[in-house]
Amino acid sequence: MKYVLVTGGVVSGLGKGVTASSIGLLLQACGLRVTSIKIDPYLNTDAGTMSPFEHGEVFVLDDGGEVDLDLGNYERFLDSTLTRDNNLTTGKIYQSVIDKERKGDYLGRTVQVVPHITDAIQEWIERIANVPVDGKDGPPDVCVIELGGTIGDIESMPFIEALGQFSYKVGPGNFCLVHVSLVPVLSVVGEQKTKPTQHSVRGLRSLGLIPNILACRSTKALEENVKTKLSQFCHVPEENIVTLYDVPNIWHVPLLLRDQKVHEAILKELNLLSKAGEADLTEWTARTRIYDTLLDPVKIAMVGKYTGLTDSYLSVLKALLHASVACHKKLVIEWVAASDLEEITAQESPDVHKDAWDLLKGADGILVPGGFGDRGVQGKILATKYARENQVPFLGICLGMQLAVVEFARSILGFDDANSTEFEPETSSPCVIFMPEGSTTHMGGTMRLGSRRTYFQVPDCKSAKLYGNAKFVDERHRHRYEVNPDMIAEIESAGLSFVGKDETGRRMEIVELPTHPYFVGAQFHPEFKSRPGKPSALFLGLIAAASGCLESVLQTSGKVNKVSTNGVANGSPTGKIYQNGNVYSNGNGFHH
């Protein structure tokens, strides 16, 4: 087994996750089998109980693992299926060691950070690195490990020590360290400054880790004299110093690394040059070229409560992007804070209220994503009502689907107090209820999580067609509440159709309004399984409906042809090629 460790220095948010994902993709393009591990030094067991404002979205895996959003990047770039154990946290390590101590596994010895915690970290890495994530038998060839945080953080010290021991244990030729650092350009002098990286590498070396490759984030390519200086002071060969300069979108990052022959440097360090082939990124390059040349916009209003931090909806944004590229449309996100649509905002801040409604009404499609808590719920209901009454393409995810049912019960059935018991426990019309198997005392890991099967009840519904006329589909879930099965008959008799249910037939999974151009709600989170070359079916439906080409997509059973090698999509739903294009940034200098 070969290991590539990606660390970060100077500041957080440099794009270590994107860099690690891109390195994995490059090695995969060379014909190697790749897996990934993300190390998060926080004490939480997992990301499940963290606020999106604190750490971005919680990414959900097939096995129900609630993990760091970087694992979403790994899955999207490598088209792999990871497990909860691919996300290693301080909480998990300490918990496993304390459990062993309580069972008496340490035979009365004093349990310490070194060697017990550091040994547990190494054992975890070795065990998980050998688990295949690509659906094939046998262990992968390379494991890409990303160490979260910044070199020098107190909380990551046990991991640094463990990885230093680990690099010595596996030996030369089996371990390659890529250090991502910052080379800022001071506006006063306009010069690329190397001192922050020098200090970062010095700190890394003092902790027992020697970088093989330096990946320097900067606004532009490193000048040759800067590379020479870095090589001299950091003891890294010039050919192993690469620039990760700002690019239009993150799909360019693997191409940027390939053009600077990063894969060759890694393969050389790992003695894999004879086993690996040439890096074939033909299809990736073509898709990136399409993305760069899109001009015709499709506006999607994102009505949520965490709109102040776009990483809160990272997978949703990616799924929208994958679908818009497939439809040859330039994605434009209109961020609408749900609470701004509410009447109380109209009274307190009339201008904010008007601007929010103007954005909503100017959109080609409306998306109401998942969320927790009652803030902004009424605004989401108002947005859903607007979409239903004005024939605007609509997709509701998780809470968004539940609120679509609540809005329908209020407006069409006349149940004025219809609500979810999450927000109004004593409502006389509980459209959404707490699931019987849920825990009312513990928050972490107690939701209905992971991949679950949905069976289509109506074969010719839009959702089934988008999924290729499938009889069932497996998607990932994360919820505590569900549509009340005792109210289904009454709701369906009024015109709302529950076209997808679980294996028992009592848990509602997909809802559609047959008389609407595209009004779909899903209890699951389809965004988690969307890939650049394989957009999520329901997101593809939303973008296609918003672009006016839903019928042509439905006629092909939701299939989108592969891009050709010249960067033109074969059989584009719009039948046009657009030029020039654009982007939204994720705040770390790389763009989405």
UniProtKB/TrEMBL annotation:
Record flagged with keyword Transmembrane: no
Source organism per UniProt: Arabis nemorensis
Ranges where the Glutamine amidotransferase domain occurs: 309-543
Reactions listed under catalytic activity: UTP + L-glutamine + ATP + H2O = CTP + L-glutamate + ADP + phosphate + 2 H(+)
Family statement: Belongs to the CTP synthase family.
Function per UniProt: Catalyzes the ATP-dependent amination of UTP to CTP with either L-glutamine or ammonia as the source of nitrogen.
This protein's name: CTP synthase
PROSITE patterns: GATASE_TYPE_1 (PS51273), PROKAR_LIPOPROTEIN (PS51257)
Domain CTP synthase N-terminal: 2-272
Keyword list, A-Z: ATP-binding, Glutamine amidotransferase, Ligase, Nucleotide-binding, Pyrimidine biosynthesis
Record-listed E.C. numbers: 6.3.4.2
GO terms, biological process: 'de novo' CTP biosynthetic process; pyrimidine nucleobase biosynthetic process
GO molecular function: ATP binding; CTP synthase activity; identical protein binding
InterPro entries: Class_I_gatase-like, CTP_synthase, CTP_synthase_N, GATASE, GATase1_CTP_Synthase, P-loop_NTPase
Pathway(s) per entry: Pyrimidine metabolism; CTP biosynthesis via de novo pathway; CTP from UDP: step 2/2
Transmembrane segments: none
